[in-house]
């Protein structure tokens, strides 16, 4: 039995005067895709740098990506 690769993909919330962030569009496209090989975890991150490390570390500990 072959195990699927565990993959974490991050995107950032909009910041400043920008109403959108293209990285979130990538997350949406991956979420809708049915031909992705691997176990995807899609992580939306705030642009608040004081929160990013904690959220990312928790996710990486839980998912243990390849």
Structure description:
With 66 residues, the protein is of the alpha+beta class. The chain has one domain. Helix content is 39%, strand content 21%. It is built from two helices and two strands, in the order βαβα. It has a two-stranded parallel sheet with strand order 1-2. Helix 1 links the parallel strand 1 and strand 2. The protein starts with 5 loop residues before the first strand and ends with a helix. The mean pLDDT is 93.
Write the layout of secondary structure elements.
Layout: E1 6-12, H1 22-32, E2 39-45, H2 49-63
Parallel strand pairs: 1-2
Quick overview:
It is built from two helices and two strands.
Search tags:
2 helices; single chain; 66 residues; alpha+beta; 21% strand; flat
Shape: flat
How much helix is in the residues?
A: 25-40%
Uncertain stretches of 5 or more adjacent residues: none
Let me know the largest β-sheet.
2 strands, parallel
How many structural domains? Answer: 1
Q: What is the gyration radius calculated from CA atoms?
A: 13 Å
């Amino acid at each position: 039995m072959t195990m699927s690769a565990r993959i974490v993909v991050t995107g950032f919330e909009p910041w400043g005067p920008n109403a959108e962030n293209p990285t979130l569009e990538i997350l949406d496209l991956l979420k809708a895709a049915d031909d992705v090989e691997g176990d995807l975890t899609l992580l939306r991150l705030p642009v608040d740098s004081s929160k990013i490390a904690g959220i990312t570390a928790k996710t990486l500990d839980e998912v243990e990506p390849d």
